[in-house]
Structures are given as C-alpha cells and as structure tokens.
Write a structure and sequence with these properties.
alpha/beta; Rossmann fold; six-stranded mixed beta sheet; four-stranded antiparallel beta sheet; globular; binds adenosine-5'-triphosphate; binds magnesium ion
C-alpha cells in the first residue's frame, strides 16, 4: 500500500528526518515509535503532503506521490488524524461528520435537499460505528478529550480512506478511554480492510495491536520489524532505557 524510501527533511540545517525507509503492506497495522522529537510527526507530514521532503520518495499503491498536496492524497485514499484534534468545536458531533462527507463527496445533485438532510444516513451510520450516535446532537467542543479523538477518527473515516495515519490516537486519554479507543480503531481497521499506520507513546498499546513496528531515533530508523524482534533489539532497549534514566 505504502512505500517510504530514504525520506529526508531538514529544518534550517537541523536534520529532523535523516533518511527514513519502511513499508506498510495492504491491510497491515504498523506503528511508528520513538522518543519525543524522534521525527514521527514529521514523517507523517511528509507522507500526507503537509511537508515536502528534501529527498526521498513516497509511493502509494505503486504510484509516486512524493510532494502531492494533502487534498489530492486524500482523494487517492490517504486519511489522517492529527496529534492535536482537528474538529469544528462549535458544530455538533453530527454536523462535524456531515461536513466531512459534504467536503469529500460534494453536494452532488441534491440541490433541493435541505442542508440538514445531506448525507444524513451516512453520517448516522458512521456515528453508530464509532460509538458516538447517542452524542450526535452535542456540541463537539464540549465532548471529553476521548470523545473528541473518537470524533476525529470519524472525520478521517468520512473521507473513505484506504490507509489511515493516526498520530497519537490515545494521547491524553485515561487508561480505560485508551483501551476503548484501541479496540475501536482495531475493529474499524479490520471491518473496512484498511491499512493502519499510527504513532504512539504507550508501549502497551503498540505491542497489543501492531504487526510491524518502526523505531525512530533522532530522525533515523534504528529498528523495523515484527514486535517480538523490536522488543529484543539492543539499540531499541538502549534508547528507551536511556529515556527513563
Ligand atoms: N516546522 C518545524 N521547524 C523546525 N523544526 C521542527 C519543525 N517541525 C518539527 N521540528 C523538529 O523536528 C524534530 C522532530 O519533530 P517531530 O514533531 O516530528 O517529533 P515527534 O517524534 O513527532 O515527537 P513527539 O513524540 O513529541 O510528538 C524535533 O526536534 C522538532 O523540534
Ligand atoms: Mg509527534
């Protein structure tokens, strides 16, 4: 589904991403981990077109998409959520998801349909599947932090992605919210046959669902492979033990 080759991003002489390569096979669940500042979000931004790489290539379904703009990548099936939420806080939960459907599919020929009926069934269906149906009428900005992250996942799904990039989907959540969110993400990935790539600091979450783990440290890949191999990797242990010293 996705091939990342030798990506480099330099900010004012500072090498944030220094030659990163990895693959995300179709239908796989992959995690990108690493200490704060390792370059995880920057790699996501390079893949989703929010940043242009100084070098390297991003290939999506066999097609070179390096430097393609975010909205075009979105049309090609790349969905994402952000480390900080990206919802419309003053709209209701329902209106947020509905707006995502309208922006993705357009108003089409429904010129006589009242706005509130647009994509009504699709919006309802999606809210059911992400467990927010009973909160549809609530103002999004008043949802709990976990609820807002859940909604953000809904906004990404409304754009009908084939590959989903989630940047710290459980950041700031309580332990029980985290468990619930991970179950939800895993179920949706499976039900929709998505490819999932996520970053995460909670190692319990990472090792519970990732099939492949790519470890970044100071903008470079120090390990990449199945969870068991990564868990045993000496350089990974050094980086993580060093962090807690
Ligand atoms: N726009 C920018 N301009 C300058 N430096 C940046 C910019 N974006 C990121 N950086 C730097 O690049 C490095 C990698 O940042 P990045 O946000 O990708 O790390 P991260 O792995 O996502 O960290 P975290 O776990 O804290 O989210 C950091 O040192 C950061 O300060
Ligand atoms: Mg980050």
């Amino acid at each position: 589904m996705l091939e990342v080759r030798d990506l480099v991003k330099i900010f004012d002489g500072f090498v944030a991403v220094g030659g990163v390569s990895f693959d995300a096979p179709r239908g796989s669940i992959g995690a990108i981990i690493g200490p704060n500042g390792a370059g995880k979000t920057t790699v996501f931004n390079l893949i989703t077109g929010h940043l242009r790489p100084d070098r390297g290539r991003v290939t999506l379904k066999g097609r070179d998409v390096t430097g393609v703009a975010p909205h075009d990548l979105c049309r090609l099936g790349v969905g994402r959520s952000f480390q900080r939420t990206n919802i419309f806080p003053r709209l209701t939960v329902f209106e947020n998801v509905q707006a995502a459907f309208v922006s993705h599919r357009g108003r089409g020929w429904n010129l006589l349909t009242p706005v509130e009926r647009l994509y009504h069934d699709e919006t309802r269906g999606l809210l059911e599947s992400i467990g927010l149906a009973d909160r549809a009428g609530e103002v999004a900005g008043f949802l709990s932090h976990g609820g807002q992250k859940q909604l953000e996942l809904g906004l990404a799904l409304a754009l009908e992605p084939e590959i989903l990039l989630l940047d710290e989907p459980t950041a700031g959540m309580s332990a029980s919210e985290t468990r619930e969110a991970i179950r939800l993400i895993e179920r949706i990935t499976r039900e929709r046959g998505l490819t999932l790539l996520f970053t995460e600091h909670d190692m319990e979450v990472v090792f519970s669902i990732a099939q492949r783990i790519t470890v970044l440290h100071q903008g470079r890949v120090i390990a990449d492979g199945p969870p068991d191999d990564v868990r045993r990797d000496e350089s990974v242990r050094r980086v993580y033990l060093g962090e807690h010293r």
